[in-house]
Amino acid sequence: MEKKSIFIVTFLIILSISGFHLPSFSQGSSRINCLDLGAMVQPVPPANKFTDPGYYVWCGSVTKGDDGKYYMLYSRWPLVDGFEAWPITSEIAVAVSDQPGGPFKHLKVALHARGTRFWDGSATHNPAVVKHNGKYYLYYMGTSCTIPITKREAYTDNWWRYRNTQRIGVAVADQPDGEWKRLDHPVLDVSPDSTAYDALMVSNPAAAFDKKGRVILLYKQVCKNGKINGGQVRFGVAFSDSPIGPFKKHEKPIFEVNDGGKDWMVAEDPFVWFQNGTYLAIVRDVVGKFTGDEGAWALMVSKNGTDWQPAKHPKVIGSTFYWEGGVPGASKLERPCLYLGKGVPKYLFGATRADKQQTMSFNVAVPLKSENKINGKVY
Q1: What are 288-328's pLDDT values in tens digits?
Q2: pLDDT tens digits along 129-164
Q3: 309-317 sheet: strands from edge to edge
């Protein structure tokens, strides 16, 4: 036994000298399954708030450019239009920063309203940017409606008609601050079957590439029920071998719970990524089914992209987030985005209202503690 031990130690020393590195625990699938983002969450510095004067800011999908800068694709629409005008006048813009946590500065509009002859001619919203094989793919929601509507009009029949034109598209660019080329058709449309879960509208895309280059696309779906606003809100999943489709839909909703589906909505606003053979998603836990905290963010995991379960440590951020100094945010965070640097979680991004009157909204960057220091353990 003593000779065997000496041999093993000598072998490991040789491997170390030769530059070969044994995989760390943090790189394995077991570490992914035990990921505790909630333990990494830190208070938000005041400087980590991105605003765009004169506009509501919502969403916020962050990626690193080839120039070493960081870009946020975000939704914005005029404050004078009112908070609920997002399906009518929203546009997707680009902000830039030298650091992943900001401060970010508005740079340009990426996707203007281009006219109702196009499927996304009225508004663009819900950006989700993903880099793959040297290209940037921007998945987003678009609306197109010609019905006259007044400013600050919300939840009227006309408002619902705008909302019901939501479809999902993709735009492609060489750089996040470059020219985004969009398609003249959605990459994901409503199902022709009037009884389908997504027969009325589709929106809120979240996309990721697996190790084989296949795209997973999570999306919000609303069914028809005879009412103008439709029935229950659920999430579906579709897959494609190409970033621009065609996508094949999975027939059943995901993020479900075994309670008969009584709730109008269970999960919302997913962010999805693929790591170490596992799909992971952060969703807003609308009614507290996954974390016990209504409005919190929940971490979900799946091996195949269709069967999702809460992670071992499901709670990511509670329904209340905190600024430095222990000051609670005025509203919960929505529209989660996770920025990973070389596979390591660095920042969570979320949109929030500045007050209960919804006079303003902005995006915040939540810093994450190094995973090497979680709970005093070293990985």
Answers
A1: 999 999 999 999 999 999 999 999 999 999 999 999 999 99
A2: 999 999 999 999 999 999 999 999 999 999 999 999
A3: 267-275, 278-285, 296-302, 309-317
CATH number assigned to the domain covering 35-376? 2.115.10.20
**CA Rg value for the chain:** 22
Residue 5 φ/ψ region, left for φ over 0, alpha for ψ in the -120 to 50 degree band, beta for the rest: alpha
Closest CA to 138 of 189, 86, 182, 201: 182
State if pTM tops 0.85.
yes
Name 295's Cβ contacts closer than 8 Å, sequence gap at least 6: 284, 285, 286, 288, 319, 332
Domain boundaries of the chain, sorted by first residue = 35-376
Q: Are 311 and 33 in contact (CB under 8 A)?
A: yes
The residues, ordered by sequence, that sit 6+ positions from 33 with a Cβ below 8 Å of its Cβ are: 278, 301, 311, 312
